[in-house]
Design a protein that fits this description.
mainly beta; single chain; 13 strands; two-stranded antiparallel ribbon; 11-stranded antiparallel sheet
Length: 192
């Protein structure tokens, strides 16, 4: 059984089922195809119009002196599943996006693979890989960015590979451990 939902800039297809009570386990598959990711923002982040931060504003109207919220632009396909119960779900997803623009942030291509989120006792476990091409923030432009990371209990691990062009770049690993009294940062990197 499947359900199709049409929205302003694309469609979402849901199949299978997920129970709405804590003891009703299930599996809900989703496939979202958005011609314009701007149409998804009310669903994903209802307060989006109020979001502020570095590079996340557009110029206001001429002569108004005010800045408006950055508009999210581009297209995306998001596929995944929610497995388990409503109180203890596991989420898996893959995202393919093109032509992304959000204020001063931009990416010609962005792919998220093997994204997973689940609970582990009283903590959260996250992981996945991100690949970007033609990534920029204002005047900082990168030919490619690769990041693989995981967060489990109080330990976060990230590996990255960044290339400003085909001739130079950097790669490295970062591990952050946090306990109740301190935070430790271990890192290594190399320039290519």
């Amino acid at each position: 059984e499947f359900r199709r939902v049409l929205f302003r800039s694309g469609q979402m297809t849901l199949s299978r089922d997920l129970g709405l009570s804590a003891d009703s386990a299930g599996r809900l598959a989703f496939d979202i195809d958005a011609d314009s990711v701007g149409g998804l923002t009310p669903w994903v982040y209802p307060g989006y119009s109020r979001l502020t931060g570095p590079g996340l504003s557009n110029s206001g109207a001429a002569g108004s002196g005010e800045e408006g919220a950055a508009e999210l632009k581009g297209s995306a396909r998001i596929r995944g599943e929610i497995i388990g119960t409503i109180g203890d779900p596991t989420v898996t997803a893959e995202i393919e996006a093109t032509g992304l623009r959000w204020g001063a942030w931009a990416a010609d291509s962005l792919v998220v693979k093997d994204f997973g989120a689940s609970s582990l006792g009283d903590s959260l476990r996250l992981g996945g890989e991100l690949y970007g091409a033609g990534v920029s923030f204002g005047s900082l432009q990168l030919a490619s960015v690769t990041v693989a990371g995981a967060l489990q209990q109080r330990v976060a691990r990230f590996e990255f590979d960044v290339a400003a062009d085909s001739l130079n770049g950097a790669s490295g690993r970062v591990q952050v451990e946090r306990d109740r009294k301190s935070t430790r940062l271990n890192s290594s990197h190399s320039s290519v």
